[in-house]
Amino acid sequence: MATVTAFEFRGAMGERPIEKWPVTYDAEVWAKKYGLTLKQAKTIISSNGPPKHGCDVGAAAFIRVW
What we know:
The chain is mainly alpha-helical and 66 residues long. It contains 3 helices and no strands. The chain is globular and about 30 Å long. The protein starts with 26 loop residues before the first helix and ends with a helix.
């Protein structure tokens, strides 16, 4: 399973690797949950932070606009 690396995300959690963040989605699992490509999922995670709530809100907005 692919995860978003620290190099792919910079944000509220600073420079810590995403694997060490407490409430993070696995990018592949999360992409399947919303019917997104892995690239789309990583983009949304990068834009909305790895916390699950932010990603879910970002996915809902992305799907509505897409």
